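anyone seen this seq b4? input:
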Amino acid sequence: MIPSLDPEPTPSSMPSVDIGEGYALLHKRSKCEWIPVGVPKAVLDNWLGCDCGSIWMWGCDNIWISRNVKIAEEGRTYIGKVQYFAQLDVQDEVTGELRWEGVAVVELYSEPDPDLLTLSSHLFAMCKHMGPEYTHVISIKQITDIVGMVPHRPTLLSGVEEDHFFMAEKPGLDVATFLGHEDEDEQDEDGMDFPPNAV
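predicted toks r here
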């Protein structure tokens, strides 16, 4: 509302690459270009429509919680485990110029078990990790949230135990969606008005 009260964000003290719209690739970057092989190479080639060659890679080996993310694609939400972040040299669809595109190579989780999701009022999202066969390349800007995926080994009704994960989100991230709605002021039993933010 008052621009002077909204200070500019402080720049990170860590080396980073600003990729726009509030996203940045933070250090640690590979010391040299890396040539992907196997499934990651196939999905990168498919995403680019040509041989991806070598890329600059940002690993996330020791950052367990930041590896699991929510992804928005075509109005749907997916959960994925980031294998690494990278920058690819792609051709802009409008100008035809070459530009850097920040991407993440992710292995997807299954959709949450619908019965458990319904029974828990959408609080318990239990998924399976689908593995390397479900590797995809996404734009970093499709990442909407960082989530925790907690290992869970339930015993099914058949007596079989299966490896699953349940999603844990940091409480309070969605509070902003509730702040836009304000109820009309109510009166106390003694007839005095409540202050607007006292309830």
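The radius of gyration is 22 Å. The longest strand covers residues 76-91. kinda curious what u guys think
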